[in-house]
Amino acid sequence: MQNFIEIDHVDKIFPLANGGEYIALRNINLKIEKVEFISLIGHSGCGKSTLLNMVAGLSNATHGGVILEGREVTEPGPDRMVVFQNYSLLPWLTVRQNIALAVNRVMNHYPEAQRKAIVEENISIVGLKHAANKKPGQLSGGMKQRVAIARALSTKPKVLLLDEPFGALDALTRGNLQESLMRIVQENQVTCIMVTHDVDEALLLSDRIVMLTTGPEAHIGQVLEVPIPRPRQRLEVVNHPSYYGLRNEMVYFLNQQKRSKKVGAVTVNKEVIPRNGLEKINLDIGFIPLTDCAPLIVAKEKGFFENHGLEQVNLIREPSWQELARGIADGRLDAAQMVAGMPLSMTLGAGNNISIPIITSMVLSRNGNAITLAKKFREMGVTNLTQLKEAINTAPDTVHTFGIVHPASMHNLLLRYWLASGGIDPDQDVNLTVIPPPQMVSNLKAGNIDGYCVGEPWNSRAVLEDLGYVIATDLDIWAGHPEKVLGVKEDWVEKHPQTHIALVKALIEACEYCDDRRNREEIVELLSREEYLNMSMEYIRPGFVDDYNYGTKIEPLLRFNQFYVNNANYPSRVEGLWILTQLARWGYTDFPRNWVEILERVRRPDLFNEACRQLGIPDMDSEPQNLQLFDKMIFNADDPVGYLERLSIRRDYKVSEILIDSPPAPNSGGVRQ
Known about the structure:
It is built from 26 helices and 28 strands. The strands form seven sheets. Strands 11, 12, 13, 14, 15, 21 and 24 form a seven-stranded mixed β-sheet that branches. A six-stranded mixed β-sheet has the order 6-7-8-3-9-10, sandwiched between helices. Strand 26 (626-628) and strand 27 form a beta hairpin. Helix 3 (112-125) crosses helix 4 (141-154), helix 10 crosses helix 20 (497-514) and helix 23 (573-585) packs across helix 26. The chain is globular and about 80 Å long. The two termini are 46 Å apart. 48% of the residues are buried. Residues 262-273 and 663-673 have low confidence and may be disordered.
């Protein structure tokens, strides 16, 4: 399906008087659906208004372009109307005459009576009948802005472009106009793009919020979905369980950009001269605020990145796994901490998505997850899977909803495996919904979900706040399973083979540091910092330093977070094959007949072992032929389809050859031959 608006790889470069150039915007990619409300937010000078002007046709892109309904935007047009902050009304004309000016210009082929009717209709829409004959000098700021909105809407535009339309108004007037705008836009089915500095305004009005990094070379840093139903009332928005999580994420992003601007040119200059034999020495690496992001934080804070020639590594906190995957896909991120199945699912194009070849050359962590239930189940006496099934069966008319973080995550795959082993169909007997990890606790508290499977500290937080209890950890389901991995686009590794090996080496050493329990107290303090988890240390400690608190019992779990010991970093292809069977089991993708080819391409022990050799570590080989989870069912890597057939609860699946474009170049990745 064709997108309504497509901002396609847009760069905007301004020439300087000294013959140089200023790159305002770099590689802006954004697709907008019809009747969608998009807000652009970022610090002053990041190019928000410049981008808006390109959509309006008031300015053209240096590279790339803006497409509206299949046609490139090259000049202004009546299908796109702009509302500016300063009203832009003609002071010698009345309200009626200012609006008529636009109508008579655009709709001059309409009969005069029809044009007058359109003017009166739009005066009525914005509630200015009583002031129709007044001039701008007789109007308040809010009334002037309503005239500007009415004038823009009067020509029946397809797109309404708003450049900080309420920035100069007092709080009460701004609030009233925001609610009027929501009503008008919904009634007229207009697509909107708005520039704003106000995070609360963006959350109130938007379907998606596009956050731009600080210039020069500003780009899309994050895109936040606003899952608040419409029509919206201000109080309902503020009380929505996602509101404060989204607001905090926006404020964190803006504060992070403010800090990065102070750092200086090194942070924003993507053309740092390579040194130490590396192709690239400044990297942006994505992560999600979870306890097991520890190797990335340790590698930065303890100097492991710098020790291997990576002189400027920015750790970018992402709001969700979906947004992190987008960051890798569009090149905003060089590398990322990924849930274990994400490199495979992105490479296969699972869920009818475009295939994006991703490789993983090391596992960053194992274990670390738990299944948390709402405390109402504890009050019902539910302490095991059998009792959970009985509780679900006793309320057949109740839909029990459980949160997962991503379809290709071990949280989803292990929760489904656990439920199905107890006779609970995860698609028919309960409802599973994707929720970013930081929003799990608020959704549990609000009663939107009955439980979840997630990494720490979000289970411990629910326990310590008496919102729920842990019924099982992943040690009870599959002890030692791969949890988070390093994910990098295949073509990125081809361009930066030595940089990639340096990155793996730094993270191997960081993982070793994390698994030395003498360092755990220090790591807890690092994780708790504002730029990382931004959380009290008491939520991070259980299972990481202290005994694990289930909410019903407390016991030591020495391998709850595993980063290095027992060959933890080895990217086993057999484990990857098990993930492929589960993706097929639940209908996310066909099972690839050419699974050997897929696994050899995605999971790269050859690159891992090269990094180990350069560190003086013997090659590792952690390839068991068989795997076994808690139900004792044997997974034989020689017969994955036979394993699928033995699973009693599953979806219908197909076995087909899945071909991936852009095969890797011979000897890529700096592998020693």
